[in-house]
Amino acid sequence: MKKRLAVVLLTAVIAAGAMAGCGQETIKDSDVVATVGKTEIKGNIANFFARYQQAMYETYYSSMLGENMWTTKVDDDTTYEESAKETIMQSLEELYLLNEHVGDYDVSLTEDEKKAIGEAADAFVEANGENVREVISGDKETVEEVLQLFTIQQKMRTEMLKDVDRKVSDEEAAQKAMQYVAFTYSEESKSEDSESTSDTKEEAKTKADTFLDAVKGGTDFEQAAKDQETSALDLTFDSETTSPNEEVIAAADKLDAGQVTDVIETDSGYYVAKVTSTFDQTATDNKKQQIISERENDCYNEIVEGWKDDTKIKENKDVWKKIDFNEQGVAVKKAEDDSDSTDNSTSKDSTDEENTDDSENTDNTDNAEEAAE
Q1: CATH code given to domain 3-164+295-364
Q2: From which residue to which does the signal peptide run (predicted)?
Q3: Which is it for strands 3-10 and 328-332: parallel, antiparallel or unpaired?
Q4: Domain limits, CATH 1.10.4030, in the chain
Q5: What DSSP letter does each residue of 205-256 carry, written as one string?
Q6: What's the pLDDT tens digit per position in 331-367?
Q7: In a 10 Å sphere around its CB, with 0-12 CB exposed, 13-18 middle and 19+ buried, how is residue 165 labelled?
Q8: Could you read off the pLDDT of 178-214 as tens digits, one per residue?
Q9: Where in the chain is the domain with CATH 3.10.50.40?
């Protein structure tokens, strides 16, 4: 029978609050899951890190992918569990890779940071029963090491990105604004007994033409949309924008403020757009931040990839397989959903063990909570 832990994870760097549930740990603390350079990643660290990430996956995606999410195929050869665990392993290896290069940037933990990490680890241990901690390798020393790795990563990233060019001109980031209306259609023909409410291609085209004639005749763009029982949507864009459709963007990009496109036919419907501004300052400022973020990510990834190329990384896949997401579920749970979940007594753990079937724990796994310190 599949078991599930309900988890509260409060991120300072990270810290965890109350958990409910239990299971049988199958990976040993001393197992070596991978080696990064000369550093061995032990089973306890890998398990705790993996379970933390698993909790996020299950909380945010299980409602879309269902209870069998981990066995769902993402392609012909790979399950969702295998895909997620590959990503998780890469992230874990990256943490240790960064840790090996702290000397490159003179990065270390301050006494205040070490104290905060210790307090977070103590709070985790106090909040969670022994059986729960065993399942996720949640002893104080393990939690402290993972918190240290996260803190080092944050500090390293700051140092690695110090020289990134953060100057972006209005011209480089310039964004325009438009309103547009879409008249979509279904290729399937309607029959008298059909329950479909979708327009046919001909009906959509008629509505689009009627809409455009009304706008050209002086009717307000939004009112004309309401008259056709649809809505005018707002969008900021530049020449590289692809939504809602590249043809719509290309047509609008040629216009001045106040001008309206012709009816534009696409594979899914007919569009009419009106340019409302040839320079939207708020959208342009947001685009500047996006450009800066892209530069930072490119710089960070380039440095990390260079280190990977120069570092021997070995994964012990047989050991990594011992961490099974399908048989042992973990999901985030708000502490206020169940005040009893902070009880660390043996009787509490025993009760949770009896309620490991997913159908009995639905209420414990519906909500997620992350908080910054």
Answers
A1: 1.10.4030
A2: 1-20
A3: parallel
A4: 3-164+295-364
A5: HHHHHHHHHHHHTT--HHHHHHHTT---EEEEE-TT--SS-HHHHHHHTTPP
A6: 765 555 444 333 333 333 333 433 334 433 333 333 3
A7: exposed
A8: 999 999 998 765 555 555 567 899 999 999 999 999 9
A9: 176-188+197-278
